[in-house]
Amino acid sequence: MLTVSTVNVNGLRAAAKKGFSEWFEATSADVVACQEVRADPGVLPDALREPPGWHTVHAACATKGRNGVCLYSRIEPESVRVGFGEAEFEDSGRYVEMWLPRVVVGSLYLPSGEVGTPRQEEKERFMDTFLPYLATLRDKASSEGKEVLVVGDWNIAHAEVDLKNWKANRKNSGFLPEERAWLSRVFDELGYVDVQRHLDPEGPGPYTWWSYRGRAFDNDAGWRIDYQIATPGLAQRCTSMVVERAESYDKRWSDHAPVTATYEI
């Protein structure tokens, strides 16, 4: 069995002070993927940089205080990779992967975007270049007898059932028709599987992100933008998946919740 958790921590050092450290110590996951770490490994305390019993790889952003992804694994990786070969995003802290004995696990923080700004243009360039990489990764892993699992904050709600107020967000980044169509290509053209929807085709949700503004969390007015996306062979072997939503607003240590799945490998 392989249990994998993914969470956008919204600043790893801040999250650690609010409950992430206790969650991490208690988790039964074999692999934990974090996004929006927002810290160079050199400034992280030992318990976050290289916790005992874990193999760790960090991909920091060249711009201090931005982005950042990491992977913690109880299983020793055969190799690791930072970035996906695209020069613009190589030091942006948006993608890192571990090649484990039977599966390749990637931690992704796809740009959030903002309509009508350079941020949206950056998101579009990222998607344009990441799509062919996903195809290459799938084929390379298959040639070595491995499955692929790319987890993280994809910053796109794929369908109406993936966010509470979908009608009001049709012209907002994260739910634009072209973004949703791109994610459909990941599934339909490349053959990857949205593991949550494999287990629960109907929805709604479960949501993984809630704005800190208003009463979004209390009203469960969220978005499902944190995914575990796998090659078909692995997706078929998922036995359980849960969004570890905080019990109450005051017990949150991020605006996202961990998404945890267990696979038979």
From TrEMBL:
Gene Ontology MF terms: double-stranded DNA 3'-5' DNA exonuclease activity; metal ion binding
GO term, biological process aspect, one: DNA repair
Entry superkingdom: Bacteria
UniProt cofactor note: Probably binds two magnesium or manganese ions per subunit.
InterPro entries: AP_endonuc_1 (IPR004808), Endo/exonu/phosph_ase_sf (IPR036691), Endo/exonuclease/phosphatase (IPR005135), ExoIII-like (IPR037493)
Annotated catalytic residues: Y109, D153, H256
Positions of Mg(2+) binding: N8, E36, D153, N155, D255, H256
Residues marked Transition state stabilizer (site): N155
Cofactor entry: Mg(2+); Mn(2+)
Keyword annotations: Hydrolase, Magnesium, Manganese, Metal-binding
Protein family according to the UniProt entry: Belongs to the DNA repair enzymes AP/ExoA family.
Name of this protein: Exodeoxyribonuclease III
UniProt source species: Saccharomonospora viridis
